[in-house]
Each structure stands twice: as C-alpha cells, then as structure tokens.
TrEMBL record:
Biased composition (Polar residues): 129-142
CDD domains cross-referenced by the UniProt entry: HTH_XRE
Native organism taxonomy: Bacteria, Pseudomonadati, Pseudomonadota, Betaproteobacteria, Burkholderiales
Organism: Massilia rubra
Region (Disordered) residue spans: 126-146
Domain (HTH cro/C1-type) ranges: 10-64
SUPFAM superfamilies (UniProt xref): lambda repressor-like DNA-binding domains (SSF47413)
PANTHER family: HTH-TYPE TRANSCRIPTIONAL REGULATOR (PTHR46797), HTH-TYPE TRANSCRIPTIONAL REGULATOR SUTR (PTHR46797:SF23)
Protein's UniProt name: ImmA/IrrE family metallo-endopeptidase
Coiled-coil region(s): none
Length: 453
C-alpha cells in the first residue's frame, strides 16, 4: 500500500461529527499531536489507523481509496486543460487538491458540466434563431454523466443490492414470473406490437401487468422481470441510494433509479458468488459465461465491471459501449482507468475495428500516453429485430484490464504481454491527447505544448 496523505478529508469527517482533535485522538488511541500531524499531511494514514477511523467514525475506509482519487485527478486535469490560463496547475497540485478536498474537485467538475450544458443551450438557441424552417432545437441536457460519476465513486459495486439479489435465489424467467405474481400480483405478458427497438418493457401499475417485448429471448425477458422486481421489492433501498448520490436534478435521479434497478437485475441473473467462481474457473471466457447464465455478451461484460465486493473481488476491468459515430453510451471502470469527457475517443482503439468484423472477438495491447498498458477485447453486437425500414441497433463493446492482470484472461493466450513493441499507442481523445506525432489526429490538442509527448 502506498502512503496516503488525506488529512483534510479526515479533518472534514471529524468536523462533521463535531469532534475536537483531542476527542478524536483519544477515540483512536493516538496523541493529539500525532493526529494534528496527520491532518496537516505531515504523517500518512497507515492501514491500522484507517481501520480504527472506520470503526470510530462509522465510515468505510474505502473513502480514502486512491481509486476515486485517480479518476478525479484525471477528470480535473481534463477540465483544467480546457480553461485559459490554467497551464500553471501541475499534476502534483491537482493530486493534492483531489486527495484532500474531493468535494471541491467534484464541484469543479459540476461547474464545468453546467458550463458545457449552458454553452450547448446557447448553440441550440442560436441554431434555432438562425433556422429558416422554424424547428425548435432540443434544450434538454443529458444527466448520464452524473449517474456514471456516482457509480464510479462506488467502484460500480452496490453491495446492498447485490446481497439482496443473492438472497432471493430465483434467477430464471419462470421463477421470476412466479415471484412477481405471488408477491406483487403482477402478470407478465408478451407484447408483440409496438416499437420494440425503443421499448423493452412497459409496466401498468393500475392493472398490475408487465409487458415485455415478444422479440426478446428468455434471458432478456428475465432481465426485464428482475429489473421490475428490484423496483417493487426494494423501492425504499433504491430511493435511499438515490438520496445518498446527491444528484442535482430529477432527470438524474430518474436515471439513477433505472441504473440501480438494472444493476439489481444483473445481480439476480448472475449471483455474485456463483458468477465469480464461474468467471475465475473459465478464465473470464465471456461467451461461456453467457451460455452458463442464460444472458447475452453485453450483460456479462457489464456484470464483470461490478465484481468489486470487499474481500472477494474479481478481475478489475473497464467496460465501454460505443456506436459507429463514436458516442459512448456506457462507460464503467472498476479501476483507476480514466475515460476522457472531452475530445471523443481514439480512432486507433480496437473497439472501432469491431464494426468491420461483426461477431468476432478482437484483441489489442494498447499503451496510453502516461505509459500504462492494457489488454482490450472488442466485439460488435446487435440488439432488437431488424426490419427493412428499421435496422437493428448496432454497438461495439470493449472490455479491458491492466496488462499486469491480463494473464488471467483466456483472451491473452498467444500474445506476448511483455513485448513493448506489441502495444498500439492510443490516447484518451484527440483534444486531450499528448501525442504530437499521431497519424490519426483529428483535432489539435487543448493541452499546453509543454505537456505534449
């Protein structure tokens, strides 16, 4: 474990509980001068002290984890790169800000997010007034980023929902249908009509009927049943989690409720302990796991990104879903890997090659500008039935892990994981990429010249 200097964060916890330095020192079995030095970052937080802090203050020691700090540092670094006159902020200064005052760092991100939304609204209004056809532009901002930030702060693991899902012991379509009927009086019916590409389920609370798209397979229908079951069985728990997330809008709260109910559905169909054992024994063979648990390739990738139970964690992975235009619709990381919020994604990334080879699992060893190297796999998937007038939805999924953990994946077979020349040099997006000699650069970097590689 590296030395952790987060004295301001500890001071904030103490002040929130109206404790003096002397009172907290007594409770922790430390001298007041020693605690004072910790709060002033003159001494690090050791593991024994972290455990005592967790017990005395009633907090999870994970709040001092560097996982969240690394992601925040990268996010704030991107934001600072967009602002004029911020070239003087060094990486060390940003790290000190994030580790000691994460609330201030998140406030900076929130301000940047609101500034970006305001700029987009202004552009929409300008386009509206300049438009000759009089069509109004949409001014509704997306709240996805806020929900993603909350899940990433939890390392994509929601233990309360995971443990509740394991307890029900019913993960097949028939068992879930029976549970909905017995506990909530809900009848599940297949809906043959409607736009099934846009609506996978429709619940009528007055008639207690859940309509699921008839075009979905049994596993997909079971997922929709389990998601509704989470909303009905654990409404209070989900609402408590949404409150704790401290989201800024009702749209974000609604998105969080949906994300949490879908999380519960995945945990029901792939119970944590059984899924982890199967994943480890199969060397994380996604197709094999999909067949064993009766779910799709994407559902397995999503579940793998949530396996962070304390004391029983799985392989730390990152998971991304993109469309052909480069829009990122899912982005989850169980590690400190950072997905840039600006500048798009890198065209040299293997995820885009997947569209030209549908059905195949592609592999790539990729090196980031900071020297970190990862093993990525990518595959194109389609959802929904295709019709002449309405093609199916098509996405590319990418799952990656740090190269030091790649040997645990079946997809590493035959690759030289230790050959530096085998890695493809990629970045987090043109506008925040430090590589000056990239042959695929689409936009000039917004980073200062001094930080360009």
């Amino acid at each position: 474990m590296t030395k952790v200097f987060m004295g301001v964060r500890l001071q904030r916890l103490r002040e929130e509980r109206s404790l003096t330095q002397a009172a907290l020192a007594r409770a922790l079995g430390l001298s007041p001068s020693y605690l004072n030095q910790i709060e002033r970052n003159q001494r690090p937080l050791t593991v024994p002290i972290l455990l005592r802090i967790g017990s005395v203050l009633g907090v999870d020691p994970q709040i001092f984890s560097e996982h969240d700090s690394a992601s925040l540092v990268a996010d704030v670094r991107d934001v600072m790169g967009e602002l004029p006159g911020s070239e003087g902020a060094s990486l060390a200064e940003l790290k000190m800000l994030v580790e000691n005052m994460p609330g201030i760092a998140r406030a900076i991100l929130q301000l940047q997010r609101r500034y970006r939304m305001a700029a987009e609204r202004a552009e929409s209004l300008e386009a509206q007034f300049d438009s000759s056809d009089g069509n109004q532009a949409s001014l509704t901002p997306s709240s996805d980023e806020e929900v993603r930030d909350y899940l990433n702060r939890r390392q994509n693991y929601i233990g309360e929902l995971d443990e509740a899902a394991e307890r029900i012991g019913a993960n097949g379509a028939d068992a879930l249908r029976e549970r909905l009927q017995r506990l909530h009086g809900v009848t599940v019916l297949a809906e043959p009509g409607g736009d099934v590409l846009l609506r996978k389920r429709r619940y009528d609370p007055q008639q207690h009927v859940l309509w699921v798209a008839a075009s979905m397979n049994a596993g997909q229908q079971a997922f929709q049943m389990a998601a509704l079951l989470g909303q009905l069985d654990h409404a209070q728990l989900i609402e408590l989690l949404v409150d704790q997330a401290a989201l800024s809008s009702e749209a974000a709260r609604k998105g969080a409720r949906l994300a949490l109910s879908n999380y519960y559905a995945g945990a029901v169909l792939m119970p944590y302990a059984a899924f982890l054992q199967a994943a480890e024994s199969s060397a994380y063979d996604i197709d094999l796991l999909a067949h064993q648990f009766g779910v799709g390739f994407e559902a397995v990738c999503h579940r793998l990104s949530t396996m962070q139970r304390p004391g029983a964690s799985g392989l730390p992975v990152f998971f991304v879903r993109v469309d052909r235009a480069g829009n990122v619709s899912k982005r989850q990381s169980a590690t400190a890997f950072h997905f840039s919020r600006v500048g798009g994604t890198c065209p040299l990334w293997i995820v885009y090659e997947a569209f030209s080879q549908p059905g195949r699992i592609l592999r790539q060893i990729a090196r980031m500008p900071d020297g970190s190297t990862h093993l990525w796999i990518a595959r194109q998937v389609s959802t929904g039935p295709a019709r002449f007038t309405a093609p199916s939805k098509s996405f590319a999924l990418a799952l990656g892990c740090d190269i030091s953990q790649a040997h645990r994946l079946v997809y590493a077979k035959g690759l030289d994981l230790h050959d530096p020349s085998a890695a493809t040099a990629i970045g987090t997006g043109c506008k925040v990429c430090e590589r000056r000699d990239c042959p695929q650069r689409a936009f000039p970097s917004i980073l200062p010249v001094s930080r360009m590689a």
